[in-house]
């Protein structure tokens, strides 16, 4: 029995069904905050993906999903069996933003029942290398800038969704990390500066995706944010068609110059 192949088929099918069930036409996902703007364009216009993660990549993502679901069950257990306090605790709490067509689901939110304050957290799994970059001696705590933008987007959405929350800055934001190597866990506070950066990012991303109709108008690596980091291309589900478009643009430019 080739269990690796069987498991890959199973994960590919789950991924296909998830995308089919959760795709929302002409809307953005809050979890994609910080992504390459061209990637947002492909997703917004429902362009078929040209590249899927390899087998190992699928298994890594599945491990993160399993940990995430376990945390969700643990919090629900805490709510049902233990917690008796002044906060409403919600898991996978859906929020929609007023100024942009964005939907998100907060991993866990604590919203005070009467006072103007709340806490939100997002779960992250990491291998040793990413963990060291975040918490090591020479750490750059937000080398993963997109995670900060993601949680800040949730905070904006929570403020838009909950009547008791008057300001983004009444919401404490954080990440809960789980290290895959040894199951060590750690919290990380997300600074409020990401609220401002999330506003700027989504202004640019939404304008880019909605105002450009023809892909050939996009000049990758010349336009700002395409990509923000070179490594993004290695994990992009539209890498092949994007590179083909770049080559086609270069050929046209050369022909025009001659």
Question: Any chance you could write out the topology, listing elements then pairs?
Answer:
Blueprint (H helix, E strand, L loop, with lengths): L2 H20 L5 E2 L7 H8 L10 H27 L5 E10 L5 E11 L5 E9 L1 H8 L9 H17 L9 E9 L5 E5 L3 H19 L27 H19 L1
Parallel strand pairs: 1-3, 4-5
Antiparallel strand pairs: 2-3, 3-4, 5-6
Features:
6 strands; 258 residues; disordered C terminus; Lambda Exonuclease, Chain A; alpha/beta; 2 domains; 6-stranded mixed β-sheet; globular
The stretches of 5 or more residues where confidence is low (pLDDT under 50) are 250-258
For this structure, the CATH topology of the largest domain is Lambda Exonuclease, Chain A
Count of individual domains? 2
N to C succession of SSEs: HEHHEEEHHEEHH
The overall pLDDT average reads 88
Total helical elements: 7
| Distance, first to last CA | 59 Å
Alpha-beta content class = alpha/beta
CATH hierarchy, class of the largest domain = Alpha Beta
> What percent of the residues sit in helical stretches (DSSP H or I)?
40-55%
Principal-axis shape: globular
- Computed over alpha carbons, the radius of gyration is 20 Å
Strand content: 15-25%
Major sheet size, sense and barrel closure: 6 strands, mixed
Number-wise, the strands total 6
Tell me which CATH architecture of the largest domain applies here: Alpha-Beta Complex
